[in-house]
């Protein structure tokens, strides 16, 4: 059973996800899965994943866990957290721990092993983003979970262990410290100014226009002012909203287009770099006063967005020791290069 | 000129260290420097580094920047921050920036290219730790800097760009947000209990003894309770002290032994993994009330220590999105493996 442990000094939890029998030298192996190797996510191999939770594309009268799907959601076979059980918080002297209850799902984004989000069709992105929205909405019904993250790891350097394109969804029973820090800062700004800090950033970026890679009616793509990573991008909805599951169908369509174009710009400009993508959205709203993880959602003060981090630089001692990152290219030059890419 | 920029949402600065003419595809190249390639840190090549700041081993009557040294300190040839100039803080609409003033030095740890800290002699570690102490003490005299970090990156995955063993020292004009978070938490604990939280953790770890890898009269080596990385180690001095430059000569000798043994345990247990090592010590004490980065050092509440992070796992979307890490081995098993290593 995985375990959550809290750092005794600061508000930071860690998942201790012990895989049985893993010995020290198993950690050092670190190789790209060979192309042509067996892929559990390819159609025909549905029995090699845990039974599917949802799918898009296969007619409802056909049996589950068979080919015919366009997008398929399954539990992670090696989950970081366990779905079964009640939360159990414990002290251990001055330390705090909790059993590792949570959800860990995989969104298989296409039946095609060599599919790429950067050249996706509108129908494909609609189904994938639809899967994100549907699964996050469903996971929120579980009162044990208070925060859910949707993310994609592309490339070994970015932590992908399988090459077949997929996203992951993790629900956790606490609001992570780093998320709280952003929520608290946005709340404090809102309380002082009665304006959303993200809306203010967006307004300033649109008027300066030095870091705006592209924009349309619904979304703005920025290379953020204090980017920690070279060519880092953020995608913000123009319409203030704290929760990405509240997107309208035209917004979902527009986001698919924008996301695919942004990933295409990165591919064009940088070759095929590894990257991480995260959907940053508000915590679950069912966490109420009295709940140990109560945060008290104010829909006005948080603004959901997507972060894309190309993994071009190494995280080294200085960054680990201080949290202070060194970015070797200015967001303004990164923006110029990314704007020039043909999409 | 490098630039410091503050995240508009949270208290987090970034160094934008633009290297002129670096184009997008230059970022993607990522290879181990070939063994046998020219090494600017090897004896005989002293003219290939900026002129030395200090050295240990060469008689004082011999010319500087010539062979004969055991440890040599030089400015970083590609510094993340510039040493020359006055601090200049500016606003840019709602954004905050500052010119990138700081120090960035390199401690070349041995004339031997294939030298390894894990098998160092007591004389070698004494000179290296002596260099750390001397340089940090000197950098503190500069009133522009308020925080200094000593760190080592070993292996390409951990961010090392040269294989010749070296450490780095960076001084910055702000107290980084992550450092402040630890200082604040330690201060709050001290104010409530009139005890150092690190001393309390140490006491509990020594009495439980599940995560103590080794201990002697002066130092204790732990795999921390909420380790974010597999086989992460922390070295704490038993004697409460907020500042590692206040070590006594016997403590410096003991630390050299302990550090070298710990790195040896990691090498024995895991092969030759990449790792980062950081010396976490209190901010400079000259930062006084009225100084914009005043923190107000209380020597009682912070406890310096060393962190060693073997780089065996990838940082992926979940970690970036939440700050919540997944560690696939419990610190208790890591401790058992590391204890068994022959040293």
Explain the overall architecture:
Two copies of one chain form a homodimer. The model of chain A has no long low-confidence stretch (mean pLDDT 93). The N and C termini of chain A lie far apart (46 Å). In chain A, helix 1 (122-139) packs across helix 4 (249-270) and helix 4 (249-270) packs across helix 6. The first copy, chain A, is built from six helices and 15 strands. In chain A, a hairpin with a 6-residue loop joins strand 1 and strand 2. Chain A has helices spanning 122-139, 177-193, 197-208, 249-270, 317-322, 331-340; strands at residues 3-6, 13-16, 54-56, 71-75, 89-92, 95-99, 103-108, 147-154, 166-172, 212-215, 219-222, 233-237, 275-280, 305-310, 325-327. In chain A, the strands form two sheets. Chain A has a ten-stranded antiparallel sheet with strand order 3-4-7-9-8-13-14-12-11-10, with helices on both faces. In chain A, strands 2-1-6-5 form a four-stranded antiparallel sheet, with no helix packed on it. Chain A has one domain: HIT-like (HIT family, subunit A, 2-Layer Sandwich), CATH 3.30.428. Chain A has 343 residues and is α+β, with helices and mostly antiparallel strands. Chains A and B meet through strand 1, strand 2, strand 8, strand 9 and helix 2 of A and strand 1, strand 2, strand 8, strand 9 and helix 2 of B. Strand 15 of chain A pairs parallel with strand 2 of chain B, so a sheet runs across the interface.
The structural class of chain A is alpha+beta
Number of strands of chain A: 15
Task: Let me know the largest β-sheet of chain A.
Answer: 10 strands, antiparallel
CATH domain class of chain A: Alpha Beta
Number of continuous helical runs of chain A: 6
Question: Radius of gyration of chain A in whole Å, from Cα?
Answer: 20 Å
The portion of residues forming beta strands of chain A comes to 15-25%
